[in-house]
Design brief:
The protein is an all-alpha fold. It contains 4 helices and no strands. The two termini are 31 Å apart.
Amino acid sequence: SFGAVPIMAVGYLALFSWLFSNGFRRAQAFLAPAGQMSLTNYLASGAIGCWVLYGYGLGLFRSFDLGMLTAFGFGLWLALA
């Protein structure tokens, strides 16, 4: 199952490279603030994620399935972007 992960990562990288090289200015404008504050977003998402998921915070890690974790991560990304 983990054999497909590097292939998917390269595929996503190729897709985003192709999209941005072909003039998707609206997507670039939407993602630019997250790129300009990448260190802040990295630290904030780590702190919020640890607090929500692990035992010294809310401890919700065991109650989330894969879909809920994905939705949580995407929602956190949207909130910080």
